[in-house]
């Protein structure tokens, strides 16, 4: 059997490439290298702006030409780095050589020795990962999460008054509204999204073991912690001043744990909506030309929610592994983080794919209020809670001599179907006040939703 032409091994780079492509601008190898060039270039500018080691500040024109190295970073640079890394066997060193080569082309050879000055690779990498992850999260992943939240919020408002039988432990329970139940997910997700939005993105720029030793040896008069902190903050990220050779990755652990948490909520949403579809509470809107089953023409499968469920499980596993691995580094440095961090994009890719499927799936379902009402009408026994609670209130108010209202209702309803007429007869015979009796007689499963509707307003 002949080998296939080169193919993507991951479905994120094949079948689902179009959906996750925006992440590749930041979390691909090329995106990481572009950020590395950015950090190297901006460090050169920062050093010359301080007129260190006999240099003078670059002109604005030279700064613009220098910044074009990362602003216009493209395929030629990607190929150049691949060829050079094949020789150096060191990715960050290849980036340093790229910047030096371009400095010569720009006629800026005079500052070439300040390229990668006093840096260990992790100085460049920690800043580059902070930048790429920050941009991927804030520009691509979080907006998609908020789009799903907005969709859920709109659904909650639209269905705020649609009564629905609740199913605690899968059994008929006190009614709610579909809007309130969808709103629960919007509320949960918005809370965790705000935590993610407030995430720190940290980098270190303090040399081989976090001591600024080489910096001080080169010029002991410079306040290197101040300079490097200002430099990192100028990139739009935060500086970690107390580190080993590596930035300790705790901010990444926090972020990935929160992303995994969000994924767990989304997974819960996917399985609940799937179940509502199976119960007939939601109908699926046919998509023209789509096939549900290869043999059963009538079927419309809830594939969006199943796809989301599976991809959230993959993403959650990867986020958990990232968090578990990155929290530890042997002594002052080991390289377990290097290959691990190259999978950040894979984790967010599966999560983004799930978010896309959820958003599309939520747009392809329609509430079936008649099914909800029929389900409620078949379960009048759920009013037992209301009746025994009202009886308790009547006892407390001195308007009833009933001794054990819970047991009374338990005997009537537990494990039994009780219809509207049965309950009405039961209520009429209760030893309670007329006003309480009238309220209970007016009650139906469809109206026994308490403040479910107004709860949606909290969104």
TrEMBL record:
One of its GO terms (biological process) is IMP biosynthetic process. Gene3D superfamilies: Fumarase/aspartase (C-terminal domain), Fumarase/aspartase (Central domain), Fumarase/aspartase (N-terminal domain). It holds the Pfam family ASL_C. It is an enzyme of class 4 (lyase). One of its GO terms (molecular function) is N6-(1,2-dicarboxyethyl)AMP AMP-lyase (fumarate-forming) activity. The keyword Lyase applies. Pathway: Purine metabolism; IMP biosynthesis via de novo pathway; 5-amino-1-(5-phospho-D-ribosyl)imidazole-4-carboxamide from 5-amino-1-(5-phospho-D-ribosyl)imidazole-4-carboxylate: step 2/2; Purine metabolism; AMP biosynthesis via de novo pathway; AMP from IMP: step 2/2. Keywords: Lyase, Purine biosynthesis. Its EC number is 4.3.2.2. The keyword Nucleotide-binding does not apply. Residues 14-308 form the Fumarate lyase N-terminal domain. Residues 329-449 form the Adenylosuccinate lyase PurB C-terminal domain. InterPro entries: Fumarase/histidase_N, Fumarate_lyase_CS, Fumarate_lyase_fam, Fumarate_lyase_N, L-Aspartase-like, PurB_bact, PurB_C. Catalyzes two reactions in de novo purine nucleotide biosynthesis. Catalyzes the breakdown of 5-aminoimidazole- (N-succinylocarboxamide) ribotide (SAICAR or 2-[5-amino-1-(5-phospho-beta-D-ribosyl)imidazole-4-carboxamido]succinate) to 5-aminoimidazole-4-carboxamide ribotide (AICAR or 5-amino-1-(5-phospho-beta-D-ribosyl)imidazole-4-carboxamide) and fumarate, and of adenylosuccinate (ADS or N(6)-(1,2-dicarboxyethyl)-AMP) to adenosine monophosphate (AMP) and fumarate. NCBIfam families: PRK09285.1 (NF006764). This is Adenylosuccinate lyase. It comes from Microbacterium hatanonis.
């Amino acid at each position: 059997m002949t080998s296939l032409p080169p193919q993507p091994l991951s479905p994120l780079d094949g079948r689902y490439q179009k959906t996750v492509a925006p992440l590749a601008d930041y979390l691909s190898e090329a995106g990481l290298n572009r950020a590395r060039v950015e950090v190297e270039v901006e460090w050169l500018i920062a050093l010359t702006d301080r007129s260190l080691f006999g240099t003078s500040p670059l002109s604005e024109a030279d700064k613009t030409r220098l910044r074009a190295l990362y602003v216009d970073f493209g395929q030629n640079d990607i190929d150049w780095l691949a060829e050079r890394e094949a020789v150096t066997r060191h990715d960050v060193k290849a980036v340093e050589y790229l910047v030096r080569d371009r400095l010569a082309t720009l006629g800026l050879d005079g500052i070439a020795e300040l390229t990668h000055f006093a840096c260990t690779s992790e100085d460049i990498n920690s800043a580059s990962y902070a930048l790429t992850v920050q941009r991927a999260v804030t520009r691509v992943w979080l907006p998609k999460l908020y789009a799903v939240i907005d969709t859920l919020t709109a659904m909650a408002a639209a269905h705020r008054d649609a009564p629905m039988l609740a199913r605690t432990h899968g059994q008929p329970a006190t009614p709610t509204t579909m809007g309130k139940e969808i709103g629960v997910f919007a509320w949960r997700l918005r809370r965790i999204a705000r935590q993610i939005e407030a995430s720190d993105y940290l980098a270190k720029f303090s040399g081989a073991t976090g001591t600024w030793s080489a910096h001080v040896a080169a010029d002991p008069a410079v306040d290197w912690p101040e300079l490097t902190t200002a430099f990192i903050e100028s990139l739009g990220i935060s500086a970690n001043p107390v580190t080993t050779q590596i930035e300790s990755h705790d901010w990444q652990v926090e972020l990935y744990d929160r992303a995994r948490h969000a994924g767990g909520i989304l997974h819960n949403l996917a399985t609940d909506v799937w179940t509502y579809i199976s119960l007939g509470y939601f109908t699926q809107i046919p998509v023209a030309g789509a096939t549900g089953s290869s043999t059963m023409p009538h079927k419309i499968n809830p594939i969006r929610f199943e796809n989301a469920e599976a991809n959230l499980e993959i993403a959650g596993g990867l986020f958990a592994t990232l968090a578990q691995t990155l929290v530890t580094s042997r002594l002052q440095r080991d390289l377990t983080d290097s290959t691990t961090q190259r999978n950040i994009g894979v984790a967010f890719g599966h999560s983004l794919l799930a978010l896309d499927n959820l958003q599309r799936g939520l747009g392809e379902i329609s509430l079936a209020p008649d099914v909800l009402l029929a389900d409620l009408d078949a379960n009048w026994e759920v009013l037992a809670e209301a009746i025994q609670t009202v009886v308790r209130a009547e006892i407390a108010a001195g308007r009833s001599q009933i001794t054990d209202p819970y047991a009374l209702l338990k005997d009537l309803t537990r494990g039994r179907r009780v219809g509207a007429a049965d309950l009405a007869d039961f209520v009429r015979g209760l030893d309670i006040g007329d006003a309480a009796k009238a309220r209970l007689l007016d009650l139906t499963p469809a109206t026994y939703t308490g403040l479910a509707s107004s709860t949606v307003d909290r969104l």
